[in-house]
Amino acid sequence: MSGKPKLYYFNARGRMESIRWLLAAAGVEFEECFLETKDDLTKLRKDGYLLFQQVPMVEIDGMKMVQSRAIGNYIAMKYNLYGKDLKERALIDMYVEAVIDLNELLMTHPFQPADKKEQHFATIVDKATNRYFPVYEKVLKDHGQDFLVGNQFSRADVQLLETLLMAEECKPDILAKFPLLQSFKARISNIPTVKKFLQPGSQRKPPLQEKDVPKLMKIFH
User: In what residue span(s) does the GST N-terminal domain sit (predicted)?
Assistant: First the structure.
């Protein structure tokens, strides 16, 4: 296969959104094939597209790639968003893995039962402001550079910005105590490819609404 990468997922953020962000930040155009029904997912499985029977799946460079971390690593390496050496890559991996942990909390919030939503929200705020954001604030303070690793735009910057914006959707003042992260957010948001992705009409997906949760659950269960 040649041409644009093709993304197979439902028409929502989920575990595909970080992949959309990476491709967009790299300036790569991509196509999307949305799963609208359980039959759409079943067909992908029967056709042998899904190595482990699950999405996200991305067709790129003749491969049908699954597992979101593997896809992200491949895109980052292919488009020079993965540092200049092994040590920088290790730092990027550490920062991205932590971002993914927080992202998972944010992403699963709409799926929480009503009686657990308040506690789940409190957990998000606690971990964001006491565990994760202080680390990135300190990294930026200690090295005094524009980017998280090697003073060059990388996957870590892309994924952190994505998650900062998601956290602000959850709690608009969540960055109040983190001035360097606020500056980082503004700076990375102004990179031309990122700025374009943040404009209305891009392939960036809106926050998941609770009314859409049952439809998604029917596709996967």
Answer: 3-83
